[in-house]
Write a structure and sequence with these properties.
heterodimer; A: 482 residues; alpha/beta; Rossmann fold; Ubiquitin-like (UB roll); de novo design (two linked rop proteins); 4 domains; five-stranded mixed β-sheet; 20 helices; 41% helix; B: 169 residues; alpha+beta; Glutaredoxin; 2 domains; 4 strands; elongated
Chain lengths: 482, 169
């Protein structure tokens, strides 16, 4: 079922005529000529559409709040700063169907009383920027942006603002500061952007995918949309399937689809027939779910209850070869780099978490470290300033909660069950199986293997860098991995 | 403030770019994008000119340049190599690919090779997760890169240089 991605790959994104042929700008016309601002907002509210950027805030309610603030100048902002590693649905929408976002921004502008829209887009997406520029130009030529749109007295135009690579700028207050030419640091809410946002004016910020769903809701009606999905999460969600899965790419499914359906029926299961271990949703703010959650219907609330979150829809599948401690460490490394440094719990707390995780993966962890991680994670969650810090320990907490035995294996037994933590590995040659063919000796990049031809060889553990070349090259399975 | 040591035409170029954005303080990020696009990087001297034109403190400009990972104060290699360290690439072995680049070129992340040909950087997701692990060299994207291909990729670009400079090995 395709709502947000309805036109992607079907129409030529550089031709406005093709979008119009698919009922494009029909919704804008309907709002401007048939609906009042209140009626349009009611339609969005009734549809049950919630923010697709991760937070899941009801879109209609957001619009209503911004509308009700009295101000001469207001802004509509589209958050296209898709910084979540592993998610690329916003890029696909902007590249494949830019007009749907433009149309929805104009509808939003009409509802809240704004005449200017701003798209905050990553500089890393040159093609999306190019297509968006073309689309805006064409919409102006067709009188769908600019003054007196469709013969009414509604004026609306869109400008682009470029991001410069900062994950925290996905947070709306940080995003607004970045658009103002400042460091993208978040500020305390309230005041919410809907009251005081860009240049101190009321600003409505929505994500690309949220906007892309709006025209369909207006065209087909709230009652059509709210029949799709679960009780509290309506419509569809686009997920970016990646990792150890056979079919990678974007999938749009109704809310309430189970993880099993997405991973096995659509994604074709795990690469090389390996065993499913975990699925990571919600990016650096989300968590890792075990196979026990495979039959959980996906919606905002279920994922939070399971210790993860919807996020922007990244879905990374992990198999038996992935070490959960390393995965948690990987995400922490990301957070560390992307933390803006403004508040102490996030800046220093995450650094400490990272250090403990590094200690564990290097084989120096102790049992108390697990509890330490838990306590510190909860402190960071409770005391950080913005969404980035408040959610940054989620990968740690969810891996501890779901894979505690793996942490224990690292700190108690000194073993990495997935065989990923190199410091905990040891390659050895089994004397009885070694034929002395010298293949490992010749391939070892650091000269750690010694031995005479036709005699069993030996690995010098102090030189071994654990690259695994000998293990791969040996034809007699004489190299063991402990 | 140290004396600015930039070529006259470079200074003029920066002044023109600032003027294009009406010397507005709020356009700082757009100005930086454009200047970096022309010069390749944003050294301290360039930041001083921008600060002067937009009538803001150099610290403001420096603060913004260092905040965003897209801006750099170090010149990039002729062929900047970026290794995607997004989650999808990570679980599909981007770390090993990075290690191999570091080994082959004998430089660390953020550095350039002595001859200025290559520089290595990590970036967070180019949105091509289906092709993981992904690297980009200049504007070209390489998908499903294995550590064993790294040498080949470097050679490909290095050989391109042989034509220009016979001394390069």
């Amino acid at each position: 079922m395709r709502i947000a991605l309805r036109n992607c790959g079907l129409i030529d994104p550089e031709k406005i005529e093709e979008y119009i042929a698919e009922d494009g700008y029909f919704a804008l016309g309907k709002c401007l000529t048939e609906f009042t601002r209140e009626e349009t907002i009611k339609e969005i509210k009734d549809s049950g559409l919630r923010g697709r950027g991760g937070g899941g805030f009801p879109t209609g309610l957001k619009w209503e709040i911004t509308k009700n603030v009295e101000a001469g100048q207001k802004y509509v902002v589209c958050n296209a700063d898709e910084g979540d590693p592993g998610a690329f649905m916003d890029r696909s929408i902007l590249e494949g169907d830019p007009h749907s976002v433009i149309e929805a921004m104009a509808i939003c502008g009409y509802c809240i009383g704004a005449d200017t829209g701003l798209v905050y887009i990553r500089a890393e997406y040159p093609l999306a920027i190019e297509r968006l520029k073309i689309a805006i130009k064409q919409a102006r030529e067709f009188g769908l942006l600019g003054e007196g749109i469709l013969g009414t007295n509604f004026n609306f135009d869109i400008e682009l603002r470029y991001g410069a690579g900062a994950f925290v700028c996905g947070e709306e207050t940080a995003l607004i500061h970045s658009m103002e030419g400042l460091r993208g640091e978040p500020t305390v809410k309230p005041p919410f952007p809907s009251v005081s946002g860009y240049m101190g004016k009321p600003t409505n910020v929505n994500n690309v995918e949220t906007f892309a769903s709006v025209p369909v809701i207006i065209n087909k009606g709230a009652n059509w949309f709210n029949k799709i999905g679960t009780e509290k999460s309506k419509g569809t969600k686009v997920f970016a399937l990646a990792g150890k899965i056979n079919k990678v790419g974007l999938v749009e499914v109704p809310m309430g689809t189970t993880l099993r359906e997405v991973i096995y029926d659509i994604g074709g299961g795990i690469v090389n027939g390996k065993e499913f271990k975990s699925v990571q949703t919600g990016g650096p703010s989300g968590g890792c779910l075990t196979k026990d959650f495979l039959d959980t219907p996906i919606d905002y609330d279920n994922l939070i209850a399971a210790g993860s979150m919807m996020g922007s829809g990244g879905m990374i599948v992990l198999d038996e070869d992935d070490c959960m401690v390393s995965i948690a460490k990987f995400y922490l490394e990301f957070t560390l780099e992307e933390s803006c440094g403004k508040c102490t719990p996030c800046r220093i707390g995450n650094k400490r978490l990272f250090e403990i995780l590094t200690k564990i993966t290097e084989g120096n962890g102790v049992l108390e470290d697990i509890e330490r991680l838990r306590v510190l994670s909860n402190v960071i969650k409770d005391t950080s300033l913005c969404g980035l810090g408040q959610s940054s320990p989620n990968p740690v907490l969810s891996t501890i909660n779901n894979f505690e035995e793996e942490y224990r294996a690292h700190v108690v037994d000194g073993k990495c069950p997935a065989g990923q933590c190199k410091s905990l590995l040891r390659y050895d040659i089994v004397e009885d199986l070694c034929t002395g063919c010298t293949l490992c000796f010749r391939n070892c990049p650091v000269g750690a293997i010694t031995g005479e031809r036709r005699e069993p060889h030996l690995i010098d553990q102090s030189l071994c860098i654990k690259c695994g070349v000998c293990f791969e090259k040996c034809k007699f399975n004489a190299i063991t991995l402990i | 403030m140290p004396e600015i040591k930039l070529a006259e035409n470079t200074i003029q170029l920066i002044i023109d770019i600032c003027a294009e954005f009406e010397n507005k303080e709020s356009e700082l990020i757009n100005v930086l994008h454009k200047v970096q696009g022309k010069l390749g990087y944003l050294p301290a001297e360039v930041q001083e000119v921008i600060a002067k034109e937009l009538k803001i403190g150099v610290a403001r400009v420096y603060g913004v340049v260092t905040f965003y990972s897209f801006f750099t104060m170090i010149p990039q290699g002729e062929f900047p190599i970026s290794i995607c360290m997004g989650t999808a690439c990570y679980v599909r072995g981007a770390e090993q690919v990075l290690a191999e680049f570091k080994r082959q070129l004998k430089v660390e992340v953020g550095e350039s090779t002595g001859d200025g040909k290559f520089s290595i950087n990590c970036l967070r997701c180019v949105g091509a997760c289906g092709l993981a692990p992904v690297i980009t060299v200049g504007g070209k994207v390489f998908g499903r890169v294995a550590p064993s291909q790294v040498k080949e990729i470097i050679e490909e670009y290095r050989e391109g240089c042989v034509v220009d400079d016979p001394k390069t090995v």
